[in-house]
Amino acid sequence: MPIARSDRLPAEFAGHPIALLVRVGAEARRRLAGRLAEHGAALPLYAILAWLDHNGPRCQRELGDALGLDPGDVVRLLDQLENATLVRRDPDLTDRRRHRLTLTAAGRTERDRCQQAMVALEVEWLAPLSPAERELLAGLLTRLGEPAADAPPRGAPPGPRALPEPEVAASA
Predict the structure, then answer these.
(1) Is-above-0.85 flag for pTM?
(2) CA-CA distance, 122 to 119, in Å (whole number)?
(3) Domain 15-134 adopts which CATH fold?
């Protein structure tokens, strides 16, 4: 089902890549969340499992910063994962104020199930694209997703707004 047909977008959005990215991104998120829900999983929990699997044991703050999550949400999500024995929270041996997060074997199995659901969705949704088009799409999205060299770190507060230059009155 195409989701970004120009007749469904306001005329001023038609053909604008940013508007199309927003629309396709929202649809991708909706579809992936639905597919994960079919397997009893949720997108934020899968993101945490995948991040820990890729990065190894880390502290809660690193996880929250990397995924752009509010610290309160991190605690709530980790409580769910810990109660399901998918993640273990251990005291950090170098700083007692912090906890180190470790993915358990059950957590790795759950991550694998979620990954399989995501790959199945990709296969179905991207079926109209040729393998070369899929590779091109992945490459372009990867490039667009990389932070610009001058971008502030993820989670950093926005910088000051540039003020307009003051107008100088012309001398008579």
Answers:
(1) no
(2) 5
(3) Arc Repressor Mutant, subunit A (1.10.10)
Burial class (CB in 10 A: 0-12, 13-18, 19+), 69: buried
Residue 68 tokens, joined: 């752009």
Domain boundaries, the chain: 15-134
- What is the residue-level pLDDT of the chain in tens, covering all 172 positions? 444 454 566 777 777 888 888 889 999 999 999 999 998 899 999 999 999 999 989 999 899 999 999 999 999 999 999 999 999 999 888 888 888 999 999 999 999 999 999 999 999 999 999 999 999 999 999 998 887 666 655 555 554 444 445 455 555 4
Q: Which three-class secondary structure string do you get for the chain?
A: CCCCCHHHCCCCCCCCHHHHHHHHHHHHHHHHHHHHHHCCCCHHHHHHHHHHHHHCCEEHHHHHHHHCCCHHHHHHHHHHHHHCCCEEEEECCCCCCCEEEEECHHHHHHHHHHHHHHHHHHHHHCCCCCHHHHHHHHHHHHHHHCCCCCCCCCCCCCCCCCCCCCCCCCCC
